[in-house]
Amino acid sequence: MELYKYCKFEHMQLLLKKGGLRVGTLFDYRNRGKYGEMSSDKNEGRTEITGNIIFYDYKHISSILVKSSVNTTGKGENQLRHFKNETLYTDNLYTFSAASAYTEEDHKKWYEKEGYDACYLIHSARLFFRAISMEIDIGNFVCFGPIHYFDETKSNQIFEGHFHPALIKNRVFGSQFEVRALWSPKLSSTEIDPIIIKNSNANKYCSPFRVIQAGKFVSDMNLQNS
User: Fold this and answer.
1) For residues 205 and 82, what is the distance between their CA atoms, to the nearest angstrom?
2) I want to staple 145 with a disulfide (CB 3.0 to 4.6 A). Which of 79, 151, 156, 162 is the partner?
3) Which residue would you say has higher pLDDT here, 36 or 6?
């Protein structure tokens, strides 16, 4: 799976040269001042759900991940779980987000609202997140997968891929095509802080993709000599 990461130019350069990057925390997204208006969500990590969720990753799910009273039917994969006026929620986790698709229109929005004048391409999400995991001593890798954008008007929610409360967001964020990696803290704690990785091999799986300079897009070919 290829991913696209919108960011500031200096942060892209730090990653490409040294493998340096920042792994944030899930609950920081509740604070508008942490990541900006486009990423902030006061309900991050908890979702009110009524109806049926059909998911295809029964082997990964556990009662630890879904903290809610649920009714389950069937055995093995393709489970149908019914949630009635319940809240799905998760403890705080370390997280890194990117997008599964790129458009210049989306990049302009990130640039205008958050100042993200660069975007790099992650050639292999699996290898990229594995390289990051090797540098996170205080966290255990949980999974990575696309966000499921919950539509409260539908009675059935079909969730393909990993099922985890931290991978559910309201449909108003659906245009971001977010893919999120999750790490759980090794020590149980109510507070965790972002992790700054100064050096890693994650840059082996990335390349520059687009930069906005003077309001114009510069392609990755012209960035190679930057």
Assistant:
1) 40
2) 162
3) 6
Which residue reads 């997008």 in tokens?
99
Q: Confirm if 45 and 166 have CB atoms less than 8 A apart.
A: yes
pTM for the full model? 0.82
Helices (H), 81-187: 104-114, 125-133
Coil vs helix vs strand at 192: coil
Q: For the chain, what's the residue count?
A: 226
Residue with tokens 């390349």: 207
In this structure, what DSSP letter does residue 110 have? H
Instruction: Give the phi and the psi of residue 16 in degrees, each rounded to 5.
Output: -65, -35
- The contacts of residue 56 (CB under 8 Å, 6+ apart) are 77, 78, 159, 160, 161
For 91-203, strand residue ranges (E) read: 94-99, 118-122, 139-146, 148-150, 156-159, 168-170, 178-185, 195-197
Distances (CA, A) of 223 to 11, 27, 106, 121, 140: 14, 34, 20, 13, 35
Lowest mean pLDDT among 5-14, 27-36, 106-115, 163-172: 27-36
| Helix, strand, coil percent values for the chain (each to nearest 5) | 25, 40, 35
pLDDT in tens, 189-226: 668 999 999 999 999 999 999 999 988 888 754 554 44
H helical segments located in 86-169: 104-114, 125-133
Q: Do the bridges between strand 71-73 and strand 3-7 make them parallel or antiparallel, or are there none, so unpaired?
A: unpaired
Residue type, 81: R
What DSSP character marks residue 173? G
